[in-house]
Amino acid sequence: MDLKFPSSRKYISISVPSKSQAMSPHIKSVDDVVVLGMNLSKFSKPTQFFICVSGVFMFYLIYGYLQELIFSVEGFKPFGWYLTLVQFGFYSIFGLIELQLIQDKRRRIPGKTYMIIAFLTVGTMGLSNTSLGYLNYPTQVIFKCCKLIPVMIGGVFIQGKRYNIVDVSAALCMSLGLIWFTLADSTVAPNFNLTGVILISLALCADAVIGNVQEKAMKLHNGSNSEMVLYSYSIGFVYILFGLTCTSGLSPAVTFCSKHPVQTYGYAFLFSLTGYFGISFVLALIKIFGALLAVTVTTGRKAMTIVLSFLFFAKPFTLQYVWSGLLVVLGIFLNVYSKNMDKIKLPSLLGLWKKSVEERKSRTLSQTV
């Protein structure tokens, strides 16, 4: 819009920024989502969902197997925080390499936001890895399956979201299944420890917050997946290194791993590589479909991880695991149904009752005739 004045040849030019420009000065396209060099924006929504889900399942199933394999090494269980340090170091290197492959290398998300995300990431992965020193792997995974509960709470307080009765019912089923599974584990597992329950519960709380913070930051500033991984994990690496140095936990871990380099650093490299690929697809899910659907997908993956854990690693088993696991699966189904209520039409109890009454009436009439 140009404003001209008759007494002067000068004029003032006023331009109104577009929606994308107002959101962030670095955005070229708010729809671009690149994962491992592949631009998902060129595909349809169902195809994007299929690619992301396939990537999450494939890489995280291998990730879960390698994680349990590392902790099966005799004497490694006390060094969960050191494994997290090594993992963060590899993630930072992978993120730096991927960032060099894209044209726009500028940081879009503010540094303060990354410091918060890094702290939450350290809490999520560090506490989760450390809990394996006290819990069976399936118990740790079943706790992670119930991440929907703190994610819903975080969504209410951080993003002001509201959830319907089906979501609440899903959270309730997951809570009951989680309690039942934990009670079963405490009776049959010889190494059950309440410390592990506390650690994994704190990890879930941090995970609930981080999903919502990542979703909000990536949508507001249109940050790339590689940028998110590089800055959050490199800052987290500094946090963990400082903590291990202050608590004198670095030297014993380095000494132990130097004696078993293949079983520790070798497995840790593959563990970190598959985890990095997996987190890239999870971040794409968060950016495209939101944190809640991403949690639903990762929860389904974790349910399959539990089955594989019992198949590949010897551990005590009870049928109570099955019933409590099915209750958690019911909660997952209710959560998926609540997000697709317009597409999935389930018959209501009132509708079934009316249908049965009409069938009885028709039978009575046919018998009378």
UniProtKB/TrEMBL annotation:
Annotated membrane topology: Multi-pass membrane protein
Main location: membrane
Molecular function per GO: 3'-phosphoadenosine 5'-phosphosulfate transmembrane transporter activity
Keyword entries, A-Z: Membrane, Transmembrane, Transmembrane helix, Transport
Pfam families per record: UAA
GO cellular component, one term: endoplasmic reticulum membrane
Lineage: Eukaryota, Metazoa, Chordata, Craniata, Vertebrata
Protein's name according to its UniProt entry: Adenosine 3'-phospho 5'-phosphosulfate transporter 2
Entry keyword annotation includes Transmembrane helix: yes
Native source organism of the sequence: Lamprotornis superbus
